């Protein structure tokens, strides 16, 4: 990445359009970049959108103007400012909703008592669920479902063993 930035000033200073062969001559002289790496550096800049490239006929032309970088930074700044304002508005609305929620939640003796009652009822419900789960094996409906499943499994086993015996008898 350190060699990416020296190429851009060539474009900005001259405000001209170049072909690759021109840049391979200019970059080593003016910026000290090896001629072999110019193509690679240029392609990286094109991929990052810092340099524009257009194929005209059989030649590729490269250019980058200072105003493009300025406009890109302005657009990025506008996007970030709009995100900041949206975030600030969301923060303010959440703060308001927190304040509204706090109004109805003053710590009173009745509220504390109701919160304790709610907690104990939730615990009681969990205990009852555990007890129902414990006695689930004795539920007539569950027992009947198990019997039906056993019956189907037994019929399937008889079917397969019958097929086995029929095939071995031949």
From TrEMBL:
One of its GO terms (cellular component) is nucleus. It is found in: Nucleus. Keywords: Coiled coil, Nucleus. One of its GO terms (molecular function) is double-stranded DNA binding. Signal peptide: none annotated. GO terms for biological process: reciprocal meiotic recombination. Its main location: nucleus. Residues 111-138 form a coiled coil. Residues 9-66 form the Mnd1 HTH domain. Belongs to the MND1 family. Required for proper homologous chromosome pairing and efficient cross-over and intragenic recombination during meiosis. This is Meiotic nuclear division protein 1 homolog.
